[in-house]
Amino acid sequence: MREIDKSKPVLVTGGTGYVASWIIKTLLDKGMHVHATVRDPSNSKKVEHLTSMANPSAGSMKLFQADLLDSGSFDQPMRDCELVIHTASPFFVANIKNPEEELILPAREGTRNVLESANRNSTVKRVVLTSSAAAIYGDNADIALTQTGIFTEKDWNVTSSPEHQPYHYSKTIAEKEAWAIAKAQNHWDLVVINPGWILGPSLSKRKDSMSISFMIQLGNGTHKMGVPELWYGIADVRDAAMAHVKAGFIPEASGRHIIVSREATILDLANMLRKHFGDNYPFPMRQVPKFLFWLIAPIHGLTRKYVIKNTGIQIKFDNSWSKKDLGMSYFLNFARIRP
């Protein structure tokens, strides 16, 4: 149990990211001082939304250059920080040519480099890690491996590999690496956030986030002929950001936390959006048969093994620990999601 001094700066890695931007906004709105790491602070297009949030806020922000694969680049941004929120990690699941270089190495080594900087910095008291529900399970078929038919924080992804579901594998080994490093020292503690598929508005104009690009495709007619029956645990980006902040400042917070408001298919999301926006966007109206998805999956950078192990298989998550430990409450009105 560690009390965090709210007058001290909070380090947020991967500051221009989709979730990180909302975490930074949440901290700034609370009048806190933020150290945010980015690849290039001089790239005005990528950091503009951060500086525009910071200028009128009650808090303050300082940008630092850092790279996940540079072992010492987090030392300076972490100086004087008691709380570190590590969000930086690549996120994409299709058209992956080199899983080791594109996903696994930056996820694992990035986590190691940030936490080793925490070991060198005597002021750090807590690290909040952005993991993923992908570290809970690899494929929807893994629901059969659970005792109750519901994914909980006790479950670990044991089915992913560099060859199958490499993103899920990268998040799993990165979180395991974090727990191993945390247990080997005693001057800071680790709290982990395991969100499902994060959706909702973006604070930046960038469209390279996988979540944002999906929302655009859902509304621009890319999938108007239909979508596969794929079930996901869904989290609003603002809920995910708040979970990180709560995990940082609640002294008693501990362990892993599934952040999922509900389960839904892609068609469910489309129907929710259609209910809110009407016919203003060509949202998909039907699900395509599994055999058709199986046939065309390679064209979209997905394997047929993925189709077999995920299509048409419903999943369920237990988010009760996040409610109890972090005091989370979830919005079930998906009109909050914007295409």
Q: Your description of this structure?
A:
The chain has helices at 18-29, 44-54, 75-78, 99-120, 166-183, 210-220, 237-249, 266-277, 290-296, 304-310, 320-326, and strands spanning 10-13, 33-38, 60-65, 83-86, 126-130, 189-195, 197-199, 231-236, 255-259, 262-265. It contains eleven helices and ten strands. Helix 1 packs parallel to helix 2 (44-54). By secondary structure, it is of the alpha/beta class. It has a domain at 10-199 and 234-261 and 316-330: Rossmann fold (3-Layer(aba) Sandwich), CATH 3.40.50. The protein has a seven-stranded parallel β-sheet, sandwiched between helices. A three-stranded mixed β-sheet has the order 7-8-10. The N and C termini lie far apart (40 Å). Mean pLDDT is 91; it is low at 333-339. The longest helix is centred in the first third of the chain and has 22 residues, at 99-120.
Quick take:
The chain is an alpha/beta fold and 339 residues long.
